[in-house]
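Something for you to look into today, if you have time. Just paste the record in under my message, thanks.
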Amino acid sequence: MQLTDYIRTIKDFPKKGISYKDITPLLLNPEACELVVSEFIKGLEGKPIDKVVGIESRGFLFGMLLAKALNVGFVPIRKPGKLPSQTFSQSYDLEYGSDTIEIHKDDIKKGERIILHDDLLATGGTAAAACQLIEKLGGEIVQVNFLIELDFLEGRKHLPKANVNSLVHY
């Protein structure tokens, strides 16, 4: 089974010049989803994990499945104003402007071993900001997982300390 068979490219979405990688066909196939989870877990053999952190919103999909498979807690990183308790925020630059993400202050304890998960690594700004939030709380990032990596955007360069694991490369 090839995961690329379950990822379709939508040209000019959400705006002209963007080739959106749609994982909806993958989500519709239980065997493909199981393969994704098993491939991520395969890379973690022998590494103790305390929590999986997922980045809003598509990082929640496989992030939750990974947390369940590893029998650990799941921590959401969200856009500002979406988390109900006290948060830490981290801003980061985008191609045109900036954005901010947040995490609950008490979701990660000092020394906890963390997997960070998102569906796509593009320019790396969001993932780098998420790593900063995890480290601010005292978490140790064991691995940063992506279903898809857009190699030509070189987002990996913004994660120099991270063990990056991407399943599909474009």
